[in-house]
Amino acid sequence: MYCDNQLYQPLSPSSQCIHTSILSLCIVAVAESEILINPSKISGTLRNDLLRVNPRFSSVVVTDDKGYQWWKNVEVQVEDHVIIPDFPSGLSQETYTQHFNTYLSKISQDVLPEKQPLWDIHIFNYPTRENVKGSLIFRMHHALGDGFSIMGAIFSCLKRADNPSLPLTFPAAGSSKSSTAKNTALKKMGSLVSGFWNSAAGFAWSVLQSTVLEDDQTVIRSCTPDLEFFPADITTISFSLDQIRQVKTKVGGSVNDVVVGLVFYGSHLYSQAVADEKSLVSSSTGSRKTALVLLNTRMVNGYRSLEDMVEKDLWGNHFSFIHLTIPSGGNAGSDTNDPENKVDPLSFILKAKKTIKKNRNSLSVYLNSALLRLMGSIKGPQAVSQYVHSTLRNTSMAISNLAGPTEKMVIAEHPIQNIYFTVSGCPQSLLFTVLSYMGKLTLVMRTEKGFINSKLLASCMEEAFKKIFEDACGKGALDRMTPAY
Question: In CATH, what number is assigned to the domain containing residue 131?
Answer without folding.
Answer: 3.30.559.10
